[in-house]
């Protein structure tokens, strides 16, 4: 796992979801450890994200390092940039090595 953070980020996502992929790319770019939680495709059965974040959409992240729970891919990407970015973003190509822990 990445040593950038003490606790892996929990990442609620859905297979094939482009918004989730956007967040995954950024997590990988910053070499942040995370656990993926793939949720139920059926909207009505997405109780876990509803409970955690108050929404039934994904992506959602829970970052216990900062106490942040967040939905909406654009907000999550902004949050990751602001919290873990160090000026210029690392080359996306170099980031594909990261991933689930
Ligand atoms: N604006 C949201 C859109 C997310 C979104 O539409 N996610 C889809 C999966 S790809 C979803 O959860 N759809 C269920 C719904 O809209 O209730 C974002 O950028 O995160």
How does this model look, in words?
- The structure is a single chain.
- The chain is an alpha+beta fold and 101 residues long.
- It has one domain (9-95): 3-Layer(aba) Sandwich (Glutaredoxin), CATH 3.40.30.10.
- It is built from four helices and four strands, in the order E-H-E-H-E-E-H-H.
- The chain has helices at 18-29, 47-53, 73-84, 92-95, and strands at 9-13, 34-38, 60-63, 68-71.
- It is globular and about 40 Å long.
- Glutathione binds next to helix 3.
- This is Glutaredoxin.
- InterPro entries: Glutathione_S-Trfase_N, Thioredoxin-like_sf.
Question: Number of helical runs?
Answer: 4
By secondary-structure content and strand pairing, the structural class works out as: alpha+beta
| Assigned CATH architecture | 3-Layer(aba) Sandwich
Unreliable parts:
92-97
Mean pLDDT: 88
- The name of the CATH superfamily reads Glutaredoxin
Q: Could you give a short account of the major beta sheet?
A: 4 strands, mixed
- Helix-strand sequence: EHEHEEHH
Question: Order of strands in the sheet with the most strands?
Answer: 2-1-3-4
**Share in β-strands:** 15-25%
Strand tally: 4
Number of domains: 1
Helix share bin: 25-40%
User: Termini, distance in Å?
Assistant: 5 Å
Distinct compounds present: glutathione
Shape: globular
CATH topology: Glutaredoxin
The Rg value, from CA coordinates, equals: 13 Å
**CATH class placement:** Alpha Beta
